[in-house]
Structures are given as C-alpha cells and as structure tokens.
Design brief:
Blueprint (H helix, E strand, L loop, with lengths): L15 H9 L5 E8 L5 E7 L2 E8 L7 H16 L17 E3 L2 E7 L11 H17 L12 H14 L8 H22 L4 E4 L8 E4 L2 E4 L6 E4 L12 H15 L13 H18 L5 H5 L6 H17 L9
Antiparallel strand pairs: 1-2, 2-3, 3-5, 4-5, 6-9, 7-8
Helix pairs in contact: 3-6, 4-5, 4-7, 5-9, 7-9
Length: 331
C-alpha cells in the first residue's frame, strides 16, 4: 500500500508487446504467451518462454517504491531463501541483478510456483508457526534501512488526513469520522507508547493466507511487496480467524510451532487490535489514493459510496470498543 498519490494512469504504456520486450531484454526468449494475474497495486504476468518453464514478471507501480526500497525487499527474500526458507524470491542474472528497468518501469522476474491458499487448521497451524519462527529468526538479525516502519503516523494519521483533505467522506459523515478517528488515534498512541520500539525488526508485513501457497506438503511465502519493520505479531494476527475461543486455540498452536525457532514475547498480543485498526484505516486510504487508476473503480465498485463510508465508520466504532477489551492470551 502506498502513502502518496501518483500518476493516475501509470500502466497505460504497459502493452502486451511491451511486456515481451521487457522480458526479452533480460536475455529470455518469450514464446508469445502471457497471462495477466490478479494484482491491483502492481502489474503481474505469467510469461511463456521458449524451451523453459514460464516465469512470473512483476512490474512495480511507478513512483511507489524507490529502487533502494525494492532492492532491500529483494535482498531480504534472497537472504531467506539462502537460509533454506520456502519463499518466492526474484531470479538473479549472471551479473547479480534482480531488478530490471524498461522505460518508466522497474520490474523483476520470478520462478512460477503452483499452489493455492491454505486453510489454517490442525497440523497446518503448527507448520505455519514453525515456518514463521524460522523466518523471524533470520529477519530479526537487522532492520530495514529504506523500507517503511509500521507506525501510527504513516498508517493511521496519514490515512485520516488524506481522506479528510481530499473530500472522500460524505459531508454529513465527516463529523462522526473526525471524532471517532481522533479517539482511535489517541487510544492507539497510548497502547503503542506502552509497548515501546525495542522489538521491531524485518517482517513479511502482509502475512495472510492469500500470500501463502500450499501444494502437497510444501508451504511457500509469496509477495513481500509490503515488507516492513514492525513487531513480530504483525506476521501472526492475520492468520487468526473466528470467535475469541477459536482464535485462542489457533494462537496457541501457532506459537507452539513458532517458539521452536524464535522467541515470542506475549506482551505483543496487546497490539493485535491496534494493528487491525491501522489496517482498516490504511486500507480505505489506499483505495482512495488509487481511485484515479481506472482499474480500481472497475474492481472495487462498492468503494466511495455513502453505504461504504457508513459501514467504514461502523467498523471503526467496533475497533474502538475492541481496543479496550482484554487482549488474547496464550494457554
């Protein structure tokens, strides 16, 4: 997700011929087949090659990340891959390059991995926990220098300011949104201050089942596009689902596996509802920032309607109550 508005039509020049030309500039011979894959922020294609397996090519949204930020993402996934983690990292050419340029676009080439999103439960939760524990054992060795840090300012305050400044929220709902979002920010600021900043390190950042591939007995982490610095629990809470008692059982199974490879600090559990609230606020602002991209009104027709904003405010009210509820605990 981006923190700023950019060119409203960044992908107009990315024609099928341009995709093939870009890929062939990396020394690969295309067979003419390509398939656009589901992606809104970037553009991702499966491209067929002559006498080789198809590859996945990701064209980064111009202006979203700097070259340094993208290279830091690549270095992270390659480090994880070298440590034996099952992550889908970019392919590196003979000169050690993982990032390429074509016109205004930066792009990377990835191996194709088959599979589907897993349905957490039973032994799979233990495997997820062990895999994340191994990932964090490597990731905790340092922090990102160029990538974002998950904080209140970028993901909460900036989201609120963008929506209000650009008149997305209907006038009759603005007072309710202003008051409620201000209360949320004050409460989250208190919770984050109590936690401190000492246990933030490199994360996947967007670790939900849609960014996992399950095939046979193998589990792969994909799409590190939102990797960032933050608390370990950010990579865990989105894997929980259901009522509180269900989440407690799921959490225990996750942490049992996780703790085999990396220490988890139970004090981080108090952050879950803060992280969920920041995600809700940031998601609405992300859609608003991208609304001038023609792909977004087409794919999210329910956004920016009176009903959407009424339901968004209701969701924030629910989060305001959740912030004062007792946090999840480990058995």
């Amino acid at each position: 997700m981006s923190l700023a508005a950019h060119d409203p039509h960044p992908y107009e020049g990315l024609t099928p011929d341009a995709v093939i030309t870009a890929v062939e500039a990396t020394g690969r011979l295309c067979d003419g087949h390509q398939l656009a894959l589901n992606s809104y922020e970037n553009r991702v294609y499966q491209v067929g090659l002559e006498e080789a397996d198809p590859v996945i090519v990701k064209f980064y949204r111009p202006g979203r990340w700097s070259r340094d930020q993208i290279l830091e993402e690549h270095a992270f996934t390659l480090e994880l891959q070298d440590a034996g983690l099952q992550v889908v990292a970019p392919l590196v050419d003979d000169e050690g390059r993982s990032l390429h340029a074509y016109g205004d676009f930066l792009f990377a080439v990835y191996p194709r991995r088959g599979g589907h999103a897993p349905e957490p439960g039973g032994e799979l939760l233990g495997l997820l926990g062990r895999s994340l524990g191994r990932l964090h054992a490597v990731a905790a060795g340092r922090r990102f220098r160029y990538r974002a840090t998950l904080d209140l300012e970028q993901f909460g305050e900036a989201s609120r300011e963008f929506l209000l400044r650009n008149d997305f929220i209907p006038a009759e709902l603005v007072p309710a949104y202003e008051s409620l979002s201000d209360q949320l920010l004050q409460r989250m600021r208190q919770l984050l201050a109590d936690f401190g900043t000492q246990r933030r390190f490199r994360l996947h950042g967007d670790c939900h089942v849609g960014n996992l591939l399950w095939r046979g007995e193998q589990l792969w982490f994909v799409d590190f596009d939102d990797c960032m610095n933050g608390p370990a629990v950010q990579d865990l809470w989105m894997l929980l689902a259901g009522e509180r008692d269900q989440q407690l059982r799921q959490l225990s199974e996750l942490i049992e596996g996780y703790s085999m490879f990396h220490d988890f600090h139970p004090g981080e559990l108090v952050l879950i509802e803060t992280l969920r609230t920041l995600r809700v606020m940031h998601y609405s602002a992300w859609l608003a920032r991208r609304w001038s991209d023609p792909a977004f009104p087409h794919s999210f027709p329910w956004f920016n309607t009176g009903r959407y904003w009424s339901e968004h405010i209701l969701a924030l009210r629910e989060q305001r109550a959740a912030l004062d509820e007792p946090p999840l605990v480990l058995y």
